[in-house]
Amino acid sequence: MKVALQGRAQGTQKELYEKAGIDIIEGGCRTEDEMIELIGDADGAQVGIMPLTSRRVMESCTKLKVVSRFGVGVDSIDIDAATELGVMVCNVPGSNTTEVADHAMSLMLSLTRRIYDAIRTTREGAWADRPGAIGEYAGTIRRLAGHTVGIVGFGNIGRAFATRVRGFGVSRILAYDPYVNQLAADLYGVTLVDFDTLAAEADCISVHCSATDESKYLFNADTFRRMKPTALLVNTARGPIVDGEALADALESGEIEAAALDVTEVEPLPSDNRLLSIPNCYITPHIAAISAVFRTETAVMQAENIIRILTGEKPHGLANPEVIKTVAIMRHTDPGRWAGIPDFSTALQV
Question: Of 74, 166, 209, 252, whose CA is between 20 and 30 Å from 17?
Answer without folding.
Answer: 74
